[in-house]
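Forum > Structural Biology > Help requests

Title: Can anyone predict the 3D structure of phosphoglycerate dehydrogenase?

Hi all, first post here. I have the sequence for phosphoglycerate dehydrogenase but no way to get a structure on my laptop. I'd be grateful if someone could post the structure tokens.
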Amino acid sequence: MTNPQDISKAPQQGLAHRMSVSASPTTTFSPPSSFGRPNCQQGLPKQLKPFNTKDIKILLLENVNQSGKDILTGQGYQVEAHKGSLPEDELIEKIRDVHVIGIRSKTKLNEKVLREAKNLLVVGCFCIGTNQVDLEFAAHHGIAVFNSPFANSRSVAELVIAEIITLARQLGDRSNEMHKGAWNKVSNKCWEIRGKTLGIVGYGHIGSQLSVLAEAMGMSVIYYDVVSLMALGSAQQVPTLKDLLSQADFVTLHVPELPETKDMMSATQFEQMKEGAYLINASRGTVVDLPALINAMRSGKVAGAAVDVYPAEPRGNGDYFNNSLNGWEEDIRSLNNIILTPHIGGSTEEAQRAIGIEVADALVRYINQGITLSSVNMPKLNMRSLTLDEPNHARVSSLTCTSLTATTATDASQIVFIHQNVPGVLRKFNDILGSHNVDRQMSDSRGDVAYVMADVKDVETSDLEEIYDSLETLSSRILTRVLY
Ligand SMILES: NC(=O)C1=CN([C@@H]2O[C@H](COP(=O)(O)OP(=O)(O)OC[C@H]3O[C@@H](n4cnc5c(N)ncnc54)[C@H](O)[C@@H]3O)[C@@H](O)[C@H]2O)C=CC1
Ligand SMILES: O=C(O)C(=O)COP(=O)(O)O
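Reply #1:
Sure, ran it for you. Structure tokens for phosphoglycerate dehydrogenase below:
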């Protein structure tokens, strides 16, 4: 096993001493010795960076689970981890230097921040939602984004089940009263949930899982979604949100943050709800107009609510949460029968451990081998055989976590070229590679960004550098990487 080499200092050694970097305890990825110009922001100074695993700098924010950190440090990457998110100016300062950033739902990677991320190759969202990242800007600048699409779905669904009963029985209020020494035994407006109708808005991973659990407890389930989706059990899709609101005793929201879902529940929609119905929001804070919810609760139209997500959330634990953060005039905390939780829908040991593994594995596969299979903003490509690799992760999870591991099936050098999806690029790409032994090649596009990978056999480092330099001159180029 050779020590990783800094190619910018000793490029001639890259091929002769093929890298087999310290084997990760969790993966069998082909570790790269590689070079590329991760500085993909057009117009910015070029920067040659070696990508030996120990040179990869990773910034993890928002308390990413140890399972993920272990995988990343196991690869030899430099990992800096923070418990909370960072103020934007600090984030900008730090993101300039790193190749990889791992975040959860709070850190906003908007255009302003990403523009500064001159070395950034990839973003790992250690959560489901990716609304906090400007995905298009990232793709256009060669930054792949990965998430964990369903590892915390069950946790959210279980929380919602707990909240349905808690609201129906006013458990929050009774508990608060007891904490203050007040015995208040009431049955007025406390209900069983058996036979009641649950209206699910957004029948995706979470909504459909919830549907099954709710039916098991004797509820009738209706759902509204913008696409026609197969009903699980006896659930029924309704054609409009209004239909759902007029029939549901409990309304629960499971849509992503999108322009179309902003204030999806506002004064008009609260009016359309049944008298004394309940609202649960564990999706995104922007989906509910909270002042309108407060009015609906004060008028008695809405008998209770559970809110897990807010338009503006504190940066980390210990930070004060109050109205001024969101600019509401009325204090949501003064209402009866309202459960307020600090965005904990996906916060279980099981979910966080599974997310840590899934996203860290995706990052390793991308960094080391350019595999974009589960990316949310890049064409999905892989040229390596993937194997299900359970034992590697037994250490971090005894649950159902399996991991797709890329095997080192080739001794070829790999060229990764992210480019604008315009006519003629593949011809130019193949002209550049033409005189070499191209073992395998794959390409795909997603909108106006395209991705091509090629395995090239029996090439000298000097040839790879020439290929690299030639690709860099193409006007369509977004990012070139050479992994070997
Ligand atoms: N509170 C928490 O800790 C967590 C919150 N979330 C949030 O929950 C959201 C939903 O998660 P998943 O179920 O995994 O997403 P998903 O993508 O599997 O399902 C979302 C569903 O919403 C539907 N949809 C989109 N726009 C809609 C609209 N305007 N009207 C009606 N339906 C619409 C989609 O067609 C899809 O079926 C995530 O995007 C995330 O923001 C996710 C995990 C944890
Ligand atoms: O997975 C999601 O989208 C969530 O909202 C959970 O976010 P978190 O990882 O708890 O910040």
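The mean pLDDT is 86. Residues 128-129, 150, 152-153, 156, 201-207, 224-227, 254-258, 260-261, 282-284, 308-309, 343, 345-346 surround NAI (ligand 1) (CB under 6 Å).
Shout if anything looks off.
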